[in-house]
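The passage that follows is intended for readers who have already worked through the single-chain material. We present the inputs for a multi-component assembly, then the predicted structure in tokenized form, and finally a short commentary. You are encouraged to pause after the input and sketch how you expect the pieces to fit together before reading on.
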Amino acid sequence: MKFSYNWIREMVPGLDVPPRELMRLITTKTAECEGLEEVGGALANASVARVMSIEPIGEGHNRKALVETRRFGTKTVVCGAPNCRAGMLTAYIASGVKTIDGVESDGMLASGRELGINSDHSGIVELTSEELVAADSVIEVDNKSLTHRPDLWGHHGMAREVGAITRRPLRDPVRLGLLPAAPGVIGVQIDDLALCPRYSALVFENVTVQLSPLWLQYRLEAIGLNTINNIVDVTNYVMAELAQPMHAFDADKLRGDTIFVRNAWPGEWITALNGEKYELAGSNLLITDSAGPIAIAGVIGGMDSSISEGTKRIVLESANFQAASVRKTSVALKLRTDASMRFEKSQDPLNTVRGLARAVELLQQVSPGIRLVGGVSDRKAEFKPPAPIEVTVDWLNRKLGRKVSAAEVRSIFESLEFGVRETASGRFSVTVPSWRATRDVSIKDDLLEEVGRMIGYESITPQAPLIASVVPPANPSRLYHRRVRAMTAAQGFTEVYNYSFVSEEMIAPFGFAPSGHIRVTNPIASDQTMLRTSLLPAIRKNILDNSRRLDAFRLFEIGREIHPRGEGLPEETPHLAAAMYERHGDGRAQLFELKRLAECLMRGCEVRPAAPRPFEHPERAAVVGWRGQEIGRLFEFHPSLGIEGRAAVLDLDLAVMERLDDQEIRYQPLRRLPTSAFDLSVVANVREPAGAIERRMADAAGSNLAEIEFVREYTGAPLPEGRKSVSYRLTVGAADHTLSSDEAAAIRNRVIEALQREGFELRI
Amino acid sequence: MIAPGRVFRNESVDASHEHTFYQLEGMMVDREVSVAHLIYFMKTLLTAIFHREVTVRLRPGYFPFVEPGFELDIRCLICGGPGCAVCKQSGWVELLPCGLVHPNVLLMSGIDPDQWGGFAFGLGLTRLAMMRYGIEDIRLLQGGDLRFLSQF
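Having made your guess, compare it with the prediction:
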């Protein structure tokens, strides 16, 4: 929303705070100002001028003009404008001497665009009075900071704030006395007063449709509104001044003598002022005449009944519509207008007749000879004034953490035109004005804000809160995840953050059923329609993306799987997904590295081959367990997933791991008696998991096995192709005596025999 | 109460907007909680975060769950006030929304707003990280590009 500084100053007479300082004050006390724009800058060097005589120069369209300027005396200028003629009143800019077509031109005659007051550049401006408008500053306020303030969508509302901030009186531009007491001549019928709490209308005759005077064009153009003609411009002027959207119908194009406010009927449509045709739905509120729609209520007028050059009589609408209804219609039709933006903020229903009164005054200025026909047609719901709010100075002081006097509190409320009555010492009964009561102010905490912002929050001295000192509740999950993150990062993995959303396309290669996912009702993008039940689809995407640039890398994510449950909130399970990629090579080393990561995170975990899931490599899929409990999977992505090279993944359930990890460590007494050790090398198929061999050895060794340790693995000559040798060191010892060499040898033989029975060959 | 975490918002993604980001939400509830307490707490928290004294200012802001609601600005850490490109020549950088907890929020939680009050704030961690490392495109944070991520 743009605000003209001059316009505000019209309503806050004597305002002497310069625009930039005013901007700062509005930002700290009312709403965020985003920018300041100087308009009509050329006006500083401009003057009203009358063209005394003109004479042609050579062949071109340029002519030499003698002009009588008010500020700079008589000047000779060269002017190429087609409308330049002797006797006209126009604007002169002292732009310096220039020679044009051999003639010395001292300054120039200016178009509206050159003056910076409108966009007209078809000729020099035609003035009707000896007054030229002044340069202005336009303050732009962030619309988002005005969502709760319907009153600030007009200059008068902002002027009220400026008056309160600068402690100057506010001038009301509205003179209600201009409205005749006579009954209205046009009927108004409202179906549902909840959707349209008020509809006020006036009829005018003897209308002249023409261009608006320059001052009016300038005001509208300065704040970014287009000028159309004097009638439409007045409706926009009133909207920009009082925040009351208005609409003018050509009365002679309306059918019947009644205006209806009702919801659209099936099949109805309208061609709007913007030239677009809109098919209307039952939820759209319409303004209609006896034959059909003439406007979409609160959004836009219809083309058929719009003001044109030949318009002689008009109906001026000043109505109030329900915010939610206007919002819904505007969103459904994808049509946001200056009117709908204002109605969406819950406008004040008492404002409709104020808008009409202001329009009467302006129309009389811009359409000479215009006459009112009858008085205001006004249909409305019953408005109950809001109940006064009780507030004490003591409560305000305690909430602010600063002393404010009763007199100061009263003066703040009064400057914002709240009703104030001191019912007891330090106790106020505050009545909220209608323009703040629609949504914004209803409880004493809202009043606290009024006082706080006006005294200025910078006037409050920071104060340390008194807090009861207690041990904060622990958050072990957070600490555990931090440990997992640090460990994984320490092994050279880079953390990625993926979205919690996936698409059907992303999960399809994994064979996950879309029905197993929670769907987003209003997805932001087509690739983010469901909540993820696994981190893996996004990890695959990370691998695909990065493998375009890198030959090898490792990455991980800690995130939540989100699984729907029968009822209630979904189950969220934290997972670690760590991945390694290599473009070249057979990928074996990656599996060992990931296994090692699992062991680092969960000491004593085991990896056992498992039946592959559809997206896992059939020969490289394993379950990761700890003391018989599954904690995750270790696998290589199936070649069908389209990854060029090899990508292995460790996917761990951190919720389960955190629970298991929590088990208390029990100290094992140190072994007092000596142990003995021996090495065994087993020849096996290369695909035979070393873990399986190790378990067989451990089982056979029995209770006196103190430790079993992997030593090395060997492939190559003299072993045949497809065979490997795996070596282990077994340490044995008993708790109650030193094992004799025979006892140790017996254990060794038992292990050898057990392995041989299973078909393994031993290299002893 | 302090709650860091991943949050979501209906927002079209571009260089400075994301629908998924990280936020630190905090709230204090006690018998007597004032704006003066809020300012003190925010100044202390931000001084600890930025490792230097920060100047804060509150101005009105509208958030339905606080009343009064504030936008908290800090004095621009780059130029220190005269104005630069980072603070858009204003000398201030909008950092976080905060306010006194709306009585309806307390009521919802079974707390009597006549007896208790509170303040609340939401600190955008994503935004802080972007300021700290000079990251100009928010999409990099969740883009999974190791050329970017491995710099940290």
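Commentary: The longest strand of chain B covers residues 20-30. Chain B has a mean pLDDT of 91. How closely did your sketch match?
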